[in-house]
Amino acid sequence: MRGGTGGGGHRLGILFLTVLVDLIGFGIVLPILPLYAEGFGAQGLETGLLIAVYSLVQLVMAPLWGRLSDRVGRRPILILGLLGSAVAYFVFARADSLAMLFLSRIIGGIGGSTIPVAQAYIADVTPPDRRAGNMGLIGAAFGLGFVIGPLLGGLVLAPLSPGEPTVPGYAAAALCLVNAVAAILWLPESRDRGATAPSRFDLRAALAHVTRSRQILLTLATYLCITMAFSALQPTLTPLASERFGTGAREAGILFGLLGAVSAIVQGGIVRRVVPRTGELLLLRASAVPFAAGLVLIGLSSETSLLLTGLVLLGIGYGGAIPSILGLLSRSVEPEQQGAVLGVGQSVGSFARVIGPAMAGYFFDVRLFLPYLAGAVLIGVATAISSGIRQPRESGG
């Protein structure tokens, strides 16, 4: 049963809540993870690898989950992912060593690799003319998850078990378990029984198409630099604020919540008004200024006001850059090729989230500000690369 019927809308609502609650659990852990890692003796590099290993596992597992969902259905894979995330957060709650934290991140990466399955679910139940808009549900869930999760983890949960991951971990695990039960009870299968489908992402064919297009190659290179620059923040913001301003888990949640809120406002409200007037390319280049300035301010901040200003600027820059670059990527090919090319883009983003945090952690051990300086340089490189990109006049141009 397919299409944008009332049943389809009901399914999408349940799917949105499923993805949102999973990402809230992820957001609870992210800003406080470096503090716990530091308590187990981790340096910047180890903390960066803790962030990177999650994305590395996702890079491997996401296409495997996608292929499996083509065979057995979307619903069981989404439920398995939620249960896997619950196990990961339980291990996190019980962690008494750095090795246990790494184990929790690896299991979390396996469970959290089902976003392509959620996207496939949307494609199953949505007619083509409404598919792009409904895919925005995933972005909205990401935005809300990265606002609610850090605030909940830092302000409410972490103070209940100071210095230990117990309460945040158990709370995130409970969220995922409740979410899994809700999915079992109310999330229907999106595909007809007995239906078969080929993989939605043929890597070899997609890469062959990408390598023939200078426009796509330059766009992907720009996306790689942008994502690496932003991901440098994840393992370093909490320890930087702790080192310079004596902040703890509560303040870390506020910092990440502020960044997520600004980015969500820009992506959800401002971008869709500006792009029709300016085009994606002009907005992408304009976003580089607050993006790089925010990174520099954070890296050099000697007062809390400078740190907060840097986060606001970074949220503005990132919120404008990511929709622009993904819009350029999707418009660089014909509609029937968008899925494959966006799949390559997703792999490029995952690869950047492996390299970026590891690089940032290494630089952080040398000087606190170096990850942010490196990020600003990457934004400069991205802007230079984007000079070779042209603004498409029409879809598929």
The level of helicity is: over 70%
Q: What characterizes the major β-sheet?
A: none
- Kindly estimate the percentage of residues that lie in beta strands according to DSSP: under 5%
- Overall geometry comes to globular
Radius of gyration (Å)? 20 Å
Mean pLDDT: 85
Q: Can you count the beta strands?
A: 0
- What is the terminal separation in angstroms? 33 Å
Order of helices and strands: HHHHHHHHHHHHHHHH
Molecular structure report:
With 397 residues, the chain is mainly α. Helix content is 80%, strand content 0%. The protein has 16 helices and no strands. α3 runs parallel beside α6. The two termini are 33 Å apart.
Which labels suit this protein?
mainly alpha, 80% helix, globular, single chain, 397 residues, disordered N terminus
In short:
The chain has helices spanning 6-29, 33-39, 44-72, 74-94, 98-111, 115-125, 128-157, 166-186, 203-211, 214-231, 237-245, 249-278, 280-300, 304-330, 338-366, 370-386.
Write the SSE topology.
Blueprint: H1 6-29, H2 33-39, H3 44-72, H4 74-94, H5 98-111, H6 115-125, H7 128-157, H8 166-186, H9 203-211, H10 214-231, H11 237-245, H12 249-278, H13 280-300, H14 304-330, H15 338-366, H16 370-386
